[in-house]
Amino acid sequence: MAQTRVTLGVCLAVAIVAAAPVAAAPRPMIALVRTKPVQVRASGFQPGERVRVTVHADTASYTTATAGRDGRFDARVRGAAISHCHAFVITAAGAHGGHAVLRRRPQCPVRTSS
To answer: pTM for this structure?
Structure first.
């Protein structure tokens, strides 16, 4: 009888732990900090993950960075040129599968002649 109670108690404890919601890992994100030189700030990567940051604007430029213990990093992409009007795409692709994308559409109005 006592062994049955222990077994039921263990089964109940396992069921409660298994049903508990798992804390979702933060999703990788990337943000533009500066345009000249291009500087980004990213978070949500695995600690120590090597990340390739690529800027696609008029040309494509890239750099690599390593996420810190908190999964964050700051990186400068030398040679990348982002104007205030043109569109761009910045990607961060981690060695362990982390991936973040930042897209901006053209910002300046198109002038037409009348």
So the answer is: 0.73
